[in-house]
């Protein structure tokens, strides 16, 4: 095993370093600087001094409900219990309109739909249109880091991948929302892993298709062998990866630990710093799109991201990248005992009968067109495969971009309005 390369990968994940800086990145350094100056020159009161710019945004330290209330929307917090003891937090901006359930991606949380602000946060935009907006949180992230049987300090707590989110957390949240609202169907909008777990739920528990009026995938993540993201470099280590994480005592990744918070408070606390350090990390993972940077809310975004996940989740994604299949966790020699076959079973996506629309970004490094088409060709009720009208649209643009209101919202509304 090439230990040095492996350690490099670990360092990338833990120190957020500039591992393998791409040539495109270097070429763009000048553009970053000139853009930053452009932003400073144009959108800031000329009477402000540069030192005023380094003041923290007053929203930085507000939690999700405080942010919702600050902008004069009603906010509700709920906690539900899964059958295996996880306590999941669900947030809501209540209204009389149709129910929309928003589900976040890997190492993300419900906060993603709020932190880009009232002009770009998807939850705010949908609330402005009268929708009853609900936001879920999968087990293990900062809002759902609790279990009545095991503590997060115990290894057992982290023994889950997105598979368990798809077959346990998501059904529990969908049932909870339908129960609270008295409706029999909801509109589901997922980003990234929020789409993966939907496909898992509706393929393994097909009765849930009846509870979904329409599903919109903001970047579809299922088949992954063609991704451009540097995450593909971890794939060859998938067999050893979990064992090594565990031998280092690492069960959890990128949660709101004091180290991550110190990083956020040091490197993401002013707009220029947040752009230079933190935004570049997500560019690096999900694709570059400088023009869509939401400067006004960058520090707020990075005070809520990353929100944590299990190490096993990352390893399961690495398995999908390496195998090219969308299938259950690969336990190696234990597969036979667990599944009755030497290879893990694939998710039967042909059973997803709920109407599904897929949004695709040309600049999305985590969702490549070959992989997306492989999925959409198998979906029996695909209603639309929509390419976002921006040549650089990246993975994280689906939640954090400046122009969500013009590039995503109109299409999203036109699709979901047909199903309410
Ligand atoms: C800048 O300050 C001057 C003098 O204090 C004031 O007249 C002007 O309106 C200010 N400009 C802005 C854009 O606030
Ligand atoms: C947010 O802060 C308020 C106190 O201002 C608290 O009541 C609420 O539980 C907090 N919510 C979360 C999700 O941390
Ligand atoms: C983790 O879960 C799997 C399957 O759910 C089980 O086979 C395995 O024994 C568990 N491992 C630990 C360390 O609890
Ligand atoms: C896409 O990126 C390229 C290179 O960074 C830039 O020249 C172009 O203007 C961008 N396009 C849009 C629509 O922002």
Automatic annotation (TrEMBL):
One of its GO terms (biological process) is lipid catabolic process. The keyword Lipid metabolism applies. The lineage of its organism: Eukaryota, Metazoa, Ecdysozoa, Arthropoda, Hexapoda. Keywords: Glycoprotein, Hydrolase, Lipid degradation, Lipid metabolism, Signal. SUPFAM superfamilies: alpha/beta-Hydrolases. Belongs to the AB hydrolase superfamily. Lipase family. The active site is at 192 (nucleophile), 364 (charge relay system), 395 (charge relay system). This is Lipase. Residues 64-115 form the Partial AB-hydrolase lipase domain. Residues 1-23 form the signal peptide. GO terms for molecular function: hydrolase activity, acting on ester bonds. It comes from the Eukaryota. The keyword Transmembrane does not apply. It comes from Leptosia nina.
């Amino acid at each position: 095993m090439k230990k040095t390369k492996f350690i490099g990968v670990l360092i990338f994940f833990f120190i957020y370093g500039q591992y393998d800086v791409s040539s495109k990145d270097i070429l763009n350094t000048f553009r970053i600087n000139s853009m930053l100056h452009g932003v400073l020159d144009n959108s800031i009161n000329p009477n402000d001094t540069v030192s005023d710019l380094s003041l923290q945004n007053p929203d930085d330290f507000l939690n999700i409900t405080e942010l919702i209330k600050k902008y004069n929307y009603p906010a509700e917090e709920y906690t539900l219990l899964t059958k295996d003891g996880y306590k999941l937090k669900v947030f809501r901006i209540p209204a009389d309109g149709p129910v929309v359930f928003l589900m976040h991606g890997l190492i993300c949380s419900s906060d993603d739909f709020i932190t880009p602000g009232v002009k770009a946060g998807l939850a705010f935009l949908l609330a402005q249109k009268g929708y009853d907006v609900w936001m879920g949180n999968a087990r293990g992230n900062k809002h759902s880091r609790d279990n009545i049987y095991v503590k997060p300090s115990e290894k057992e707590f982290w023994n889950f991948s997105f598979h368990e989110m798809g077959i346990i957390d998501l059904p529990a949240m969908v049932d909870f929302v339908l129960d609270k609202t008295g409706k029999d169907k909801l509109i589901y909008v997922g980003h990234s892993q929020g789409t993966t777990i939907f496909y898992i739920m509706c393929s393994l528990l097909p009765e849930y298709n009846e509870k979904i009026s329409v599903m919109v995938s903001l970047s579809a993540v299922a088949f992954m062998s063609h991704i451009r993201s540097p995450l593909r470099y971890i794939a060859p280590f998938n067999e050893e990866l979990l064992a090594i994480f565990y031998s280092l005592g690492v069960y959890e990744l990128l949660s709101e630990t004091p180290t991550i918070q110190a990083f956020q408070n040091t490197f993401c606390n002013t707009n220029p710093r947040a752009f230079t350090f933190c935004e570049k990390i997500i560019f690096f993972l999900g694709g570059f799109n400088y023009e869509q940077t939401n400067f006004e809310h960058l520090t707020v975004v990075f005070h809520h991201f990353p929100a944590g996940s299990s190490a096993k989740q990352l390893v399961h994604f690495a398995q999908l990248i390496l195998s090219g299949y969308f299938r259950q966790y690969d336990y190696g020699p234990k597969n036979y005992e667990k599944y009755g076959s030497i290879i893990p079973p694939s998710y039967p996506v042909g059973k997803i009968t709920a109407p599904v629309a897929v949004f695709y970004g040309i600049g999305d490094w985590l969702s490549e067109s070959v992989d997306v088409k492989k999925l959409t060709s198998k979906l029996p009720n695909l209603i639309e495969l929509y390419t976002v009208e921006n040549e650089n649209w990246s993975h994280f643009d689906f939640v954090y971009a400046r122009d969500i209101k013009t590039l995503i919202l109109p299409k999203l509304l036109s699709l979901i309005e047909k199903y309410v």
